[in-house]
Amino acid sequence: MGLAILAVVTTAVSVIAIQMINVNASTSNRVLAIRQVQEVGYTVSRDALQAQYISTEDDEDTTEVVELLTIEWVEWYGVTNTIIYTKDGDQVVRTVTRDGSPDIETIRFISEFDLDYDVLEDVLTLTVTATVGGFRQVSETRIYEIIPRARL
Questions:
Q1: pLDDT value at residue 133
Q2: Hey, is 97 helix, strand or coil?
Q3: CA-CA distance, 124 to 36, in Å (whole number)?
């Protein structure tokens, strides 16, 4: 009788422990996915708000990398900033060039990075989905509508 009670208690504790591990993994993945989506949204928004030029077309046919977004502006003292967003697998790659010096930043777990730039309305619509894999895979999607600064 004592062994039966011990077996029932042990089983219940094991089930509760497994459930807690599952919930913890799912929650961690969801938080990471949300942070990745927000990071892309914030970064693109910040860059687009400074833009004097925006293009969602691949400007150069000479490279194998497809440019998803190109943003440019000239600072008041003449420094030209060019930011090019590309997608490589599950990463969004942001390349910033200031007067010829490139700096590369990557954001991981991005499974979808779609852009639409309405030239007439001057609105950049960005759809970002982050998928964090492994145990308890989760996805998070956000849509951003960005209105660049007034053109000078």
A1: 76
A2: strand
A3: 19
CA distance 97 to 79: 10
The long-range contacts involving 43-46, CB below 8 angstroms and separated by at least 24 positions, are 43/94, 43/107, 44/69, 44/85, 44/124, 44/126, 44/144, 44/146, 45/126, 45/144, 45/146
Contact 54, 148 (CB under 8 A): yes
Three-state DSSP class for 2? Answer: helix
Say which residue the tokens 């892309």 belong to. Answer: 40
Question: Beta strand pairing status for 101-107 and 91-98?
Answer: antiparallel
Beta-carbon count within 10 A of 64 CB: 5
For the stretch 113-122, pLDDT in tens is 888 888 888 8
Residue pLDDT, tens place only, 96-105: 998 778 888 8
The backbone region for 91, taken as left when phi is positive above 0, alpha when psi lies in -120 to 50, beta otherwise, is beta
**What pLDDT is attached to residue 41?**
92
